[in-house]
Write a structure and sequence with these properties.
single chain, 2 domains, four-stranded mixed sheet, 2 helices, EGF-like domain, C-X3-C chemokine binding, transmembrane, membrane, protein kinase binding
């Protein structure tokens, strides 16, 4: 019973938190916890303490690695640009496509949230349609709400 149960009449009786014919399947989900606090990053199921990624783009022990995904900054750049500056590729469709985050304007880069806060934070530097740099941060809190802080 792999040390996780006792054998009675050639059948394993598993200790709490273990299952399977040989008690070799842990019911503990801690190894499946992604950095955002979700089981398997919300993109898989935790089976026997291991993530089975159901979204084929994502892989790794907690379904957090995506080789083909845009980075957080590039992914949200067009929406931040239209919401903050009313320009860019999504200017016409901004109100339909880009309302999925809370946005806060700040005066300068040193007013942006800094690393060390509880929510994972991405610092972004992107070019706008006029070839000018703009700066923003992107974070998701424990309630799953996305928050963007953008430098005016």
């Amino acid at each position: 019973c792999t040390g996780n149960g006792v054998c009675k009449c050639r059948v394993c009786e598993c200790f709490p938190n273990f299952t399977g014919s040989a008690c070799d399947c842990s019911l503990d989900t801690f190894p499946c916890m992604a950095s955002n606090g979700q089981i398997c990053n919300g993109r898989g199921t935790c089976e026997c303490g291991t993530c089975n990624c159901t979204d084929p783009k994502f892989q790794g022990p907690t379904c957090e690695m995506c080789q083909t995904c845009l980075g957080v900054c590039a992914e949200h750049k067009d929406c931040v640009q239209c919401r903050a500056f009313d320009k860019g590729e999504k200017k016409e469709t901004c109100s339909q496509e880009c309302m999925h985050f809370n946005m806060t304007r700040v005066e300068s880069r040193d007013k942006l949230p800094q690393p060390g806060q509880p929510d994972p934070l991405s610092h972004c530097k992107e070019k706008d349609v006029d070839d000018c740099w703009f700066y923003f941060t992107y974070s998701v809190n424990s309630n799953g709400e996305a928050n963007v802080h953008v430098v005016e």
